[in-house]
Amino acid sequence: MRPAILQPRGQAPFPDPAQCDDEGLVAVGGDLSPARLLNAYESGIFPWYNENYPPLWWCPNPRAILQASDLHISRSMRRVLRSCDYEVTWNAAFGKVIRHCAVDRAEGTWILPEVVAAYELLHRQGHAHSIEVWRGGALVGGLYGVQRGGLFAAESMFHRATNMSKVALLYCSISVTRAGIGLFDVQFLTPHLASLGAGEISRDEYLSRVRAERNRQVDLSRLTVRSPID
Q: Tell me: the pLDDT tens digits for 45-74?
């Protein structure tokens, strides 16, 4: 199936991502309005594109997920988690987290100013969340993502000190799972994610799980952060 062409401020729905090739380009164009973004995540689709390109909407096959039951925490990482030199918070600095995620990336970034503005609006509406890791009052790691019911789609993470993005991811995975999230999406499997226990499932299975989770009632607004080694 060829990617659909979406008009800015249009109302056309996304095509069925199950009909795309494995690379997963579902659609081109459209906008980053809250309605469009939320419809994308509810359909198993996420935006990812570069500067000077229109929005590109993806649902690759396979998809990477991180199940709390599969977390792999090495001995060295357990020592980091047991240390008392950091603090973890929830939704305390969303704007700072997404901006940190956008800079100092050798491969470039898709988190352009319009993307930052769009996800900050989702955050104000209660649909996007961040987890922050602090040391000595400085933000040294974090992660942000989008929630639709029992789905949490992790979008990006960063670190300014060794292992602090891992701390953010591990805390986020265990905390949202204990709050009721049933599907923790990490999009693509990387060696970094695989080392923490992430794995791949087929796109068909992923889409089936999204449909099962997206309408569940899960409140992350007052989430209590939990240590993955408690």
A: 999 998 889 999 999 999 999 999 999 999
Helix (H) or strand (E) holding 156: strand 151-159
Torsion over CA of 47, 50, 52 and 53, rounded to 10 degrees? -40
Read off the DSSP letter of residue 133: E
State the Cα–Cα distance between residues 136 and 73, nearest whole angstrom.
25
- Give the pair of three-digit tokens for residue 103: 């800079």
CA angle 102, 154, 24 (to 5 degrees): 90
Other CB atoms within a 10 A radius of the CB of residue 54 amount to: 14
- Check if the beta carbon of residue 197 is closer than 8 Å to that of residue 67: yes
Q: What is the 3-state secondary structure (H, E, C) of 11-79?
A: CCCCCCHHHCCCCCEEEEECCCCHHHHHHHHHCCCEECCCCCCCCEEECCCCEEECCHHHCCCCHHHHH
Give φ, ψ of 172 to 5 degrees: -65, -50
The whole-angstrom separation of Cα 178 and Cα 220 is: 10
State pLDDT tens for residues 84-98: 899 999 999 999 999
Per-position b or e across 101-127, b if 16+ CB within 10 A of its CB: bbeeeeeeebbbeebeebbbebbeeeb
| Domains of the chain, earliest start first | 4-62 (3.30.70.3550), 64-201 (3.40.630.70)
Map tokens 């952060």 to a residue.
Answer: 225
